Backbone:
């Protein structure tokens, strides 16, 4: 489980004609089976980081190694993209075909998978995201969350070991967000797919195994949610929020209630408050 | 209305003609249209009309609906007829009324051209009514793929068609949204003359184009990340197969061509 799936070594990346690098000297690693959240506000470089992991961009300095393959090597390109599937922000702009199952087949067609193998792989990918009932539907008739699940199925059919989600929930309504995050978390748990979840929603990051906070093109904080979020002041400095319950716990502690600093969810908060109110139990 | 946009004028029922291989349908349509241009006399057109009627029966398409496809073109058809009727330099004068001269040749070409045009429309309607746009794109890609050797972008053409079809409803929805947003801010799309209306479209079209380009950029990246690298070494989910029915349809069209040729020999 502790084997490194993706490693980012001293990476600096500058966009064409940009005066400042979008990422500078970034070092991080993702372990196999891990759910890593990358947090950061707009323009922090988190999206650039995502695109480096899929060899859509190649760093000018340093190197990115995905599943043992260097992204700078052109020969690895297609294998890296098959291994590390990517979901993007806008659900409309990543579906190619006019029918759901044909869109799921798109990656398979590109990889040159024999036609006879396709229906089985499409079927199992669609059932993994619970979209079988929509196999023959037209994409524009689906909700945002459903479209994102189709996009995930399109990647799953390619049998990847990593899923990179570049703000995949940013354009969805709350129920769509939960739908997509739950799907990816289940795939992480049940199929052991490594996840890199790029987001600016704290509540989503709180569900990750580990968080990396990006600001100004650098990694400024890293650790488990319980290590990162209690640093409320530091997060504020970075113009980032913390989960509401962590914030509340901080306020209550300031008011004299002996609560732990690493409360993340409503359930945990309820439990801690109960413990305080009836210590006998 | 918008829901049906991707379908074009495709008439989605299950029929003998619908199930035919789109490649065969495309070829047969072209053959039929060429045959129509070979027709010498009215008997030939009657044959073609009979064939089109039978085909529409086999396609479970109401014949009236097929003929309805001619309605939008009625002015062009009438114009073709009238122009050919009066502006022909034939010598076989039938009637002479002042500066208007009606010649035998004029009548003949007018009838020929109008009927040819009408059958051209009927033939292609028959194709598009029975073939979904996606199958048509498939057919075009496969039929033209031998030309790839001469750098003809068959795969790219078909991919463009598919993506266009995929994005028509998305862009329509967006146009609707932008239009409402502009109307909420006082834009007026409905009054004024033609020029004023065309000008009113500018605040609609500019954001629509900007967004279309952004979508194109996003889509290109998403396609690349899913290993898209053009038509090389690509396999297909949908495989087209020529069946017995396709040969039957081909035989029917061949029979039509032979009958038209025979008609030409008799006359």
Residues:
């Amino acid at each position: 489980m502790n084997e490194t799936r993706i490693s980012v070594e001293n990476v600096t990346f500058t966009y064409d004609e940009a005066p400042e690098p979008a990422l500078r000297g970034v070092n991080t690693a993702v372990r196999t089976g891990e759910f890593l959240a990358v947090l950061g506000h707009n323009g922090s470089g988190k999206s650039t980081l995502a695109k480096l992991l899929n060899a859509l961009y190649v760093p000018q300095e340093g190197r990115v190694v995905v599943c043992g393959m260097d992204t700078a090597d052109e020969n690895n390109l297609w294998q890296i993209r098959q291994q590390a599937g990517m979901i993007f922000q806008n659900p409309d702009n990543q579906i190619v075909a006019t029918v759901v199952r044909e869109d799921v087949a798109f990656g398979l067609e590109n990889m040159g998978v024999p036609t006879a193998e396709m229906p089985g792989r499409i079927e199992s990918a669609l059932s993994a995201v619970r979209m079988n009932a929509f196999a023959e539907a037209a994409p524009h008739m689906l909700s945002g969350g459903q479209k994102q699940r189709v996009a995930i199925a399109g990647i799953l059919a390619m049998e990847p070991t990593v899923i990179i989600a570049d703000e995949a929930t940013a354009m969805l309504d709350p129920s769509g967000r939960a739908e997509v995050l739950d799907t990816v978390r289940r795939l992480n748990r049940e199929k052991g797919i490594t996840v890199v979840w790029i987001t600016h929603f704290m509540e989503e990051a709180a569900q990750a195994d580990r968080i990396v906070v990006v600001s100004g093109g650098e990694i400024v904080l890293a650790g488990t949610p319980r290590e990162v979020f209690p640093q409320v002041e530091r997060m504020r400095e970075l113009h980032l929020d913390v989960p509401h319950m962590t914030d509340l716990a901080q306020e209550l502690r300031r008011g004299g209630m002996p609560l732990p600093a690493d409360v993340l969810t409503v359930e945990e908060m309820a439990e801690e408050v109960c413990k305080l109110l009836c210590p006998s139990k | 209305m918008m829901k049906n946009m991707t379908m074009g004028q495709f008439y989605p029922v299950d029929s003998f003609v619908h199930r035919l291989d789109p490649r065969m349908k495309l070829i047969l349509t072209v053959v039929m249209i060429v045959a129509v241009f070979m027709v010498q006399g009215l008997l030939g057109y009657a044959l073609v009309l009979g064939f089109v009627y039978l085909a529409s029966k086999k396609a479970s398409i109401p014949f009236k609906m097929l003929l309805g496809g001619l309605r939008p073109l009625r002015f062009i058809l009438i114009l073709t007829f009238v122009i050919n009727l009066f502006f022909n330099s034939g010598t076989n004068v039938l009637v002479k009324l002042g500066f208007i001269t009606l010649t035998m040749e004029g009548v003949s070409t007018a009838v020929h051209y109008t009927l040819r045009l009408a059958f051209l429309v009927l033939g292609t309607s028959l194709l598009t009514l029975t073939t979904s746009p996606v199958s048509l794109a498939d057919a075009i890609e496969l039929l033209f793929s031998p030309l790839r050797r001469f750098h003809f972008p068959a795969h790219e053409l078909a991919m463009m068609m598919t993506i266009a079809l995929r994005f028509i409803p998305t862009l329509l929805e967006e146009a609707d949204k932008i239009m409402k947003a502009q109307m909420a801010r006082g834009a007026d799309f409905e009054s004024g003359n033609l020029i004023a209306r065309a000008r009113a479209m500018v605040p609609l079209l500019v954001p629509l184009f900007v967004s279309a380009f952004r979508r194109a950029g996003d889509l290109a990246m998403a396609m690349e990340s899913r290993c898209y690298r053009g038509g090389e070494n690509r396999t297909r989910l949908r495989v087209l197969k020529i069946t017995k029915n396709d040969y039957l349809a081909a035989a029917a069209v061949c029979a039509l061509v032979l009958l038209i040729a025979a008609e030409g020999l008799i006359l």
